[in-house]
Design brief:
This protein is α/β, with parallel strands linked by helices. The chain has a 7-stranded parallel β-sheet with strand order 1-2-3-4-5-6-8, sandwiched between helices. The protein has a two-stranded antiparallel ribbon with strand order 7-9. About 40% of the residues are buried.
Length: about 300
């Protein structure tokens, strides 16, 4: 038994079998790039770093699903259930008619059991959530918000374009419709200390999430953050963190995390040609996961054993 609430296990229990996510690029833009909110996007963002080879806007959503299934099958990743994961861009940033079309093209595929919509907390509405709630009466639906930090000063610094209060509001609106909700947080943004990253877990717990992703900050070439990293490396607390140290940090975060929240990721990987700098010494994700499990097992620690809510 794992010492933390594993997302894969949680989804198997939820749907009744092994689940495989298929990344989808619906060719939607970002309001933080096209002028709706701002121009230039987040300082850390390089969108092409997030999409697998089969995920290309030249293909229809149906074609991307078929190619995604074939891609994973060729690597021995069979599944009973496939989830279409609208990953690239802001996947609520379109008219309701467009969203209705693309979401239904995915859920109407005979092998798709549900959808996960990746978006921003300031790009959601009751109309969009009602559309998703209707789909949820027939298929699995979740919304994954890129929140990145609980500090408004950090969100402003990286040109995120929203506040943490926006995230709290979006998550609450989603939960009100009984739609699963997840969030993504980046560890190591400029100005954030190790102590803050542990301490912010209390604010994360208060959101009432179903699942969460943690990624270490990676510096992508040709981004505004790459320039900041080169000129002010002292702003980045996890700049030279080792895999061992990062595993220790993650263990502390897990111990403070509400045990009902399933953890999907501890870190991320990206194509080396896109990276200017990545901490952890290039360690593989499965190796890092083994380190985390080993540390928790050897010290008899578990998810939430330091959670304040456990004493209430």
């Amino acid at each position: 038994m794992l010492p933390y609430n594993d997302y894969g296990n949680a989804m198997r229990q939820r749907l009744g079998g092994r689940v495989q996510k298929l990344a989808i690029d619906a060719a939607l833009s970002c309001p933080n790039r096209d002028g709706t909110i701002a121009y230039g996007g987040c300082t850390f963002c390089l969108n092409e770093a997030f999409s697998p080879a089969y995920c290309r806007t030249a293909h229809t959503i149906t074609e991307q699903i078929d190619q995604g299934i074939a891609f994973h099958a060729s690597r021995g990743r069979s599944a009973e259930y496939y989830i279409a994961y609208f990953q690239s861009g802001t996947n609520t940033h379109a008219s309701i008619d467009t969203l209705h079309k693309i979401y239904h093209e995915a859920v109407n595929h005979p092998k798709i059991s549900g959808i996960i919509i990746g978006t921003r907390p300031d790009c959601i509405s009751s109309e969009i959530l009602n559309l998703l709630a209707d789909i949820a009466t027939r298929k699995y639906v979740a919304v994954e918000y890129g929140i990145e930090s609980t500090l408004d000063s950090t969100l402003h610094h990286v040109n995120r374009g929203h506040t943490f209060a926006d995230a709290e509001h979006a998550v609450e609106l989603t939960r009100q419709r009984n739609i699963d909700v997840g969030a993504h947080f980046i560890l190591g943004l400029p100005g954030e200390s190790r102590e803050h990253l542990i301490r912010q877990t209390e604010a994360i717990n208060a959101l009432g999430l179903n699942f969460i992703k943690f990624h270490q900050l990676q510096i992508y070439r040709s981004t505004a953050m790459a320039s900041e990293w080169l000129s002010h490396p002292e702003r980045f607390a996890l700049n030279n963190i080792t895999a061992e140290e990062y595993a220790e940090l993650i263990v502390e975060i897990i111990r403070h995390l509400d045990p009902t929240i399933s953890i999907e990721r501890f870190a991320s990987q990206a194509p080396r040609n896109l990276l200017l700098h990545s901490p952890l010494g290039g360690v593989r994700i499965d190796t890092l996961r083994s380190k985390i499990i080993s540390k928790m097992t050897s010290t008899a620690t578990t998810q939430g054993d330091l959670w304040l809510g456990s004493d209430r």
